[in-house]
Specification:
482 residues; mainly alpha; 3-stranded mixed sheet; 25 helices; flat
């Protein structure tokens, strides 16, 4: 996908939910509009959009970073006005400063925004603001009676973005972005102020420094004069005014003052993104310089080990890793990096031990579950890996990475029925019903499944056929209502 198309695709994801009509056409804005776009519909639409997001090269497929951003997001959501609401958080590989909310409680954050945040409280402030948009049901209010037109437009642009990089596709994306931009309403600022207030309260309830939110937005406001007509994407989708800044600062003054140190994991995430953003040799020089200037900077040392590992300097990486582990408190990031160094040095048994110990210490960390299963496969313990993944699936049946890992474990064991059955679930979670059915047919014909496995395969074939038919009917209904 060309940069222009990728930028337009991401910009549209932020803006598509802001499609609006003149205020005179929405005399009863709140409850009526929200009722017409129910929470169940929001979740369904959000899941459909997320399928497309995960297929896009801009989606950051990094379990460790995704684990961190979801842990941070869940902490904030639990302290928000609606702690029971379901949320999902993800990161987009993009150097611009942006964050956005999608239907169904899905919240995306650009990697550039994470790197621009000078403290964890600043990052939490932006996420808390987006949670405020979701909890206040701004998405439902904005879509309202025009939900069908909005969703159809969104679907058409997503389809164009997912297509090849032809001129026609680029034109479709550009036209869609232009139409969405022109349709914005003045009352956007009211929603922004409401999300600010909700976000500040969430930030305080979650134990962060409330000054982080106001400080970050104020710094962005000062930077706008440098951008002129090319303002950051966040400012294009989240209008920032002096009144908003003043309102935030006034509210902060009435809140309890607290100094909140950043977690070590916040530093590790920023270092990880910093290494990914540049060639490995450049990253080694960058982080080696930081370590030389600040030997106690654990995030810098983590980044240096990661960069050395990617450059293939395994002895240097192992030496720096030893120093990092001596200085750092236990962390999933450090454990994962230790295992990666062991695997690179062809010592999978040590990697398994490291990850097993870390999993006991951090049992809720899913990135360690994936890594431990892969390390067990590398160590020739595929059956053990499969058992561990199946245990994790009991509470995380919709986790696509677990199914991918289970498929790899099945292949390593030579169990073709199990392999194809797990791969079918991967395709099903992506909405690729035909691929899922093909994998299930392969599972049925593999010849190594027992009666119970084959019965489960047959039941799943019937279920997926029904889901595919229902989705086709919904699509046809939307088309007819256009």
């Amino acid at each position: 996908m060309r940069p222009m198309m990728r930028s337009a695709f991401l910009f549209l994801l932020c803006l598509a939910l802001a499609v609006r009509v003149p205020a005179a056409d929405l005399p009863d804005l709140g409850d009526v509009a929200a009722e017409e776009f129910s929470p169940a519909e929001e979740r369904q639409v959000g899941e459909e959009i997320m399928r497309e997001v995960r297929k896009n090269p801009a989606w950051l497929d990094d379990p460790e970073i995704e684990e961190y951003i979801n842990r941070l997001g869940r902490r904030l959501a639990a302290a928000s006005s609606d702690p029971a609401r379901q949320f999902g958080f993800f990161v987009i590989k993009d150097g611009t400063l942006n964050a956005f909310a999608l239907p169904g409680g899905y919240i995306g954050v650009h990697s550039g925004l994470i790197l621009a945040a000078q403290s964890e409280s600043e990052l939490a402030g932006v996420i808390g603001h987006e949670i405020g948009h979701v909890n206040q049901r701004h998405i439902a209010q904005l879509v309202g009676k025009q939900k069908q037109a909005t969703l159809l437009m969104l679907a058409s642009i997503l389809a164009a973005a997912a297509a090849n990089s032809s001129r026609a596709s680029e034109a479709a994306v550009a036209a869609g972005v232009a139409g969405v931009t022109q349709a914005q309403l003045a009352y956007t600022r009211d929603f922004e102020r409401e999300a600010d207030r909700a976000g500040l309260q969430t930030l305080e309830n979650a134990g962060f420094d409330v000054r982080g939110m106001a400080g970050f937005f104020e710094r962005m406001q000062r930077a706008t004069r440098l951008y002129e007509n090319n303002a950051p994407a966040y400012l294009r989708t989240h209008p920032l005014t002096s009144e908003r800044i003043a309102d935030m600062e006034n509210r902060v003054m009435s809140m309890r003052y607290r100094q909140v140190p950043d977690s070590a994991d916040f530093g590790y995430v920023r270092a990880r993104l910093g290494v990914q953003a540049q060639p490995a040799a450049d990253a080694v020089r960058t982080f080696a310089g930081r370590v030389a200037n600040q030997p106690d900077d654990l995030a810098a040392r983590y980044g240096l080990v990661l960069a050395q590992l990617r450059l293939g300097r395994l002895d240097d990486a192992a030496r720096e890793l030893g120093e990092l582990r001596r200085r750092a408190a236990p962390s999933p990031f450090v454990a994962h990096l230790s295992a990666d160094v062991s695997l690179a040095r062809r010592d999978p048994d040590t990697a398994v031990k490291t990850l097993t110990d870390a999993s006991r210490q951090f049992p809720a960390n899913m990135s360690l579950v994936y890594a431990l299963a892969d390390a067990r496969v590398a160590a020739g313990r595929a059956e053990e890996a499969a058992k561990g993944v199946r245990r994790a699936l009991v509470g995380h049946g919709g986790d696509i990475r677990l199914w991918q890992t289970l498929a790899r474990a099945g292949a390593a064991q030579g169990k073709r029925t199990a392999q194809h059955r797990a791969q079918a679930e991967v395709y099903a979670l992506q909405g690729a019903w035909r691929g899922a059915l093909e994998q299930l047919e392969l599972a049925r014909k593999a010849g190594d499944g027992d009666f119970y496995e084959l019965s489960a395969v047959d039941a799943r074939i019937r279920d997926i056929r029904m889901r595919a038919r229902d989705e086709l009917q919904r699509g046809q209904q939307r088309k007819n209502e256009r």
